[in-house]
Amino acid sequence: MESIFGAAEYALQELKAAGAEAGRCQLDQGVVNEFKTDAGELSMLRTARHENAQLTALVGGKKGSALTSDLSRDSLRQAAARAVDSANAAPDTQAELGPVLQKTFQAGELVCNREALYRRTQELLQEVKERYPLVSLNIYSAAHRENHSLYADSNGTRVCYDTGVYTLFPSFSASQNGVTSSFNAFRCKMNDLSRPFMDIGLARMLIAQSEKQIYPQTFRGKFTGQVLFAPFCLSGFLNSIVERCAGDHGMLSKTSPWRSKLGQQVSDAGISLDIVPLDPRIAAGERLTTDGYISENYTLIEDGVLKCFAVSRQGARATGCAPAPNTSRSLLLKCGKYTLDELVQGIERGMLVTRFSGTGPNVNGEFSGVAKNGFLIENGKITDAVSECMISGNFLQMLA
Question: Of all helices (H) and strands (E), which one includes residue 274?
Answer without folding.
Answer: strand 273-275
